[in-house]
Design a protein that fits this description.
It contains 9 helices and 21 strands. By secondary structure, it is of the alpha/beta class. The relative contact order is 0.16.
Length: 386
């Protein structure tokens, strides 16, 4: 393995910006230098001069269905590799392949395919696991999920999903509106799976009860959930009030008004909000007709909507755009990296998400306009236009 020095960068540390350089060796950050250090004392096999660009932890997307014409539900390694190759172009180094509400047979087949590529050195971003979005949802808040397959949870069925490969399913979105689903939440948490409230018409009390059972995450907050009202706080109210819940936000300026995003971050704090894309296969492609699972989607004016009822159907958002949207809302670059990388790494116990010695060298280089110039995954450059 060669020693690679990324020099002359604005390093985005957890709470500050410093001018410096990073030495990458054997997939890890071996050393962080500041401008005060004398680099002449060290030898390097390769040096890349970043010419003052930002260098931060690469993005982590825990909720993405697809991109570049492919979807995780396609159930093929080719589709997953295509998604992986696209995501590094937007600065993402790690992601959860996200499923849709479907039949047990189809979901198990998809899980088996993802299992073959989990944490493997593939073309682009690393697939560190699966986010199962459904099928235990409330049809009232189905959004772009297929209600034909929605049902109450059965632990025997969940056992089948988890038995495909230990440690594959990292996140499970579920509606805590009945006792069966609450028991499922407890079972999943006991098995080490983070559970998330999503596509749910549950009451405030239902969600807070689910927190007692171990629920600790919210799927695309505000979307697909009972709204906040002053006499019935709903799912959103529980997300606001529970310190145990980490809140996803889909910040494409379409799904959620920017000022509602600001409200969420003010209430939860920058350490408990995670930006996701919920991207579908049309991401990166021209507008037109696409599929989201079995459902027909029309993409027009940057919006993905179901043909059947015009409901929003995922997004065509990129993580670098979500990052830039945070900056435009007035958040610092350090806080923006927390919400696009650090917080997810901490929640899922990944050895990444922060510039620190001995962390995985999952890095992104951004220019002054926050355009992605390079993405490194486990010490390997997977995308560059430097």
């Amino acid at each position: 393995m060669k020693k690679l020095l990324l020099k002359n960068a604005k390093l985005v540390l957890e709470n500050k910006l410093v001018n410096g350089s990073i030495l990458v060796f054997e997939n890890r950050i071996e050393k962080i230098f500041t401008d005060e250090d004398n680099l002449s004392e060290f030898t390097f096999d390769e040096v890349i001069d970043l010419e003052g660009k930002y260098l931060g932890p690469a993005f982590i997307d825990v909720h993405t269905h697809g991109a570049d014409g492919s979807d995780a539900m396609d159930g093929s390694e080719e589709a997953l590799r295509k998604i992986s190759s696209y995501l590094v172009q937007e600065g993402t180094a790690n992601f959860l392949a996200t499923t849709l509400t479907s039949s047990k047979e189809i979901l198990k087949d998809v899980l088996k395919v993802v299992a073959n590529l989990q944490n493997k050195n593939i073309e682009g971003a690393n697939i560190f696991g699966v986010h199962m979005e459904g099928p235990y949802f409330s049809p009232v808040c189905k959004g772009a999920q297929n209600d034909k397959y929605m049902k109450s949870a059965r632990i025997s069925e969940i056992e089948e999903y988890l038995s495909v490969k230990e440690g594959l399913v990292k996140l499970f979105s579920i509606s805590p509106h009945n006792q069966e689903n609450l028991e499922a939440i407890k079972y999943l948490v006991d098995k080490g799976v983070i559970t998330s409230v999503g596509h749910s018409a549950a009451s405030y009390e239902d969600v807070m009860r689910a927190v007692d059972y171990g629920l600790s995450h919210a799927t695309h907050t505000f979307n697909g959930m009972k709204e906040f009202a002053h006499r019935e706080p709903g799912v959103v109210g529980a997300v606001f009030n529970s310190d145990n819940i980490i809140a996803e936000i889909l910040f494409d300026k379409i799904h959620v008004h920017p000022e509602a995003v600001r409200t969420l971050i003010k209430i939860k704090g920058v350490d408990k909000v995670i930006c996701i894309t919920d991207s579908m296969s049309a991401t990166g492609l021209a507008e037109g007709q696409y599929k989201l699972g079995e459902l027909d989607v029309n993409v027009k004016d940057g919006q993905a909507r179901l043909v059947s009822n015009n409901a929003l159907a995922g997004s065509v958002l990129r993580m670098d755009v979500a990052f830039k949207n945070l900056i435009e809302l007035g958040y610092s670059i350090t806080d923006a990296f927390k919400m696009t990388s650090t917080n997810a790494a901490k929640e899922f116990k990944l050895n990444t998400g922060i510039l620190k010695e001995d962390k995985d060298a999952d890095l992104v280089v951004l220019d002054k306009d926050y355009k992605v110039c390079m993405t490194m995954v486990k010490g390997k450059i997977k995308f560059t236009n430097l």
